Amino acid sequence: MRNYLPVPLQRLQVGKPLPVDVWAPDGRLLMRRGQVLQSEQHRSMLAAHLACMTESDAQAWQKSLERLLRTLRRDGADMTLIAQIPMPGEILDTDYLESRDIDGGWLDLQEILRGLLYQGAQATTPLPRLEAIEQKALTQLMRNPDECLFVLFQALPDLSLGYCATHALLVGAVSALTAIKLSLAPEMLLRSALVMNIGMARPQDSLARQLTPPSLAQRQLIDSHAPNSADILRGFGVQDQDMLDLVHWHHAPDASGSHDDKLTELHLLSLADSLIAKMAPRKSRPAMSALGAAKSLVMANTQTTATLGPAMAAVLGFYPPGTYVKLSNGETAVVIARGQRANTPHVASIVNANGMPLSKYIYRDTTNTILAVRQPVGAEKINIKVNLEKVRRLRFQHGV
User: Cα–Cα distance between 384 and 279 in angstroms, integer?
Assistant: First the structure.
């Protein structure tokens, strides 16, 4: 769960853009960073909605304010005026966490990664930040892969969170878990997945919200983003040729000239990238179900990927954690963990057979014919917000 802190509304300037996303406590986005506070009435509306921000934004904004105050004190500004100064309109990327000690869960990690991806070639001290994100992600993934998949698949349909970072983390998680299943090292795949689309992060988010097909200019950007991303990483000081090759060729593995394990890693990254893209919604088209995406992995095998597709499908299951299913008894459930078989996940019923939301989630054993999964359900058909703490308690109670 995200930790929210109040926005200091009285210290905001009317007519000035805000450097943070503004949220309601229930997770609804009220204002996107860069949007302008329009009037005093707008301020009052935000106050009525209990406007808040994420903890990482709050900490960074505070650091930005402290830096401004130090400058004013150094320049001899009147202390009375300093006490009344509005919040700064800019947060530098150096105000965000740069150490290995990144607190919070997957959504906090997603937000920090999104900041780095958005900054692209202009990011400062990017490699320590990337390493911190990678280490935190790997630690959390190894500790509880089902929670990783649950949180990120829940986030995938929410385009307001920023698709580019959710996609990167999911591709990294799926690639790493599949690599482990195939007795390969997961670290390089995860590291490369995090930044493989840094060459088009903001456009990637815009395209996800776009109602029309990509324009010619957008198509050219899509076609060139992989080598552009590799160039940005070289500019950061990345010298690991394996990582640069993974990023550069993740859309065209067979054109890389690589062989053996390196080619296998390229195909793994490419397959995971394609899989998550199919399962992600766009304003212009619905998402493919996890079942359909998994079947496409198994059915579209080539000689090179004959073992990779089935291994990836086995890692995710037909119904990954965080996605929704209809049960044979008519209930709608959210998948909370993978099961022993691809078609028997652990689920929690959240809507009864009459279409009424359940305040208390009910664990269902899908190996029981009466409670078997009948079909996947698209996230766009679910009108309730799933409570992660309830899911955690249910997983704990049933040992999953």
Answer: 20
Contacts of residue 384, defined as CB under 8 A and 6 or more positions apart, other chains included, come to: 350, 351, 357
Pairing of the two strands 346-351 and 332-337? antiparallel
d(CA 140, CA 148): 7
Backbone angles phi, psi at 144, to 5 degrees: -155, 80
For the whole model, what pTM was predicted? 0.77
Of 278, 264, 340, 277, residue with least CA distance to 308: 264
Domain 141-316, classified CATH 3.40.50.2300, yes or no: no
Kindly give the confidence (pLDDT) of every residue in the chain, 400 residues in length, as a single tens digit, with 9 standing for 90 and above: 567 889 999 999 999 999 999 999 988 899 999 999 999 999 999 999 999 998 888 888 888 887 787 777 767 777 666 667 889 988 876 676 554 456 678 998 998 899 899 889 988 778 888 988 999 999 999 999 999 999 999 999 988 888 999 999 999 999 999 999 999 999 999 999 999 999 999 999 888 888 888 899 999 999 999 999 999 999 999 999 999 999 999 999 988 888 888 899 999 999 999 999 999 887 777 788 888 887 777 676 666 677 898 899 899 999 999 999 999 999 999 999 999 999 999 999 999 999 999 999 999 999 999 999 999 999 999 999 999 999 999 999 999 9
Q: Which segments of the chain belong to CATH 1.10.3210.10? A: 141-316
Residue 344 · residue 366 · CB < 8 Å: yes
Beta-bridge mates of residue 351: 332, 357
Provide the sign of the torsion angle of the four alpha carbons 164, 129, 263, 185, taken in this order: negative
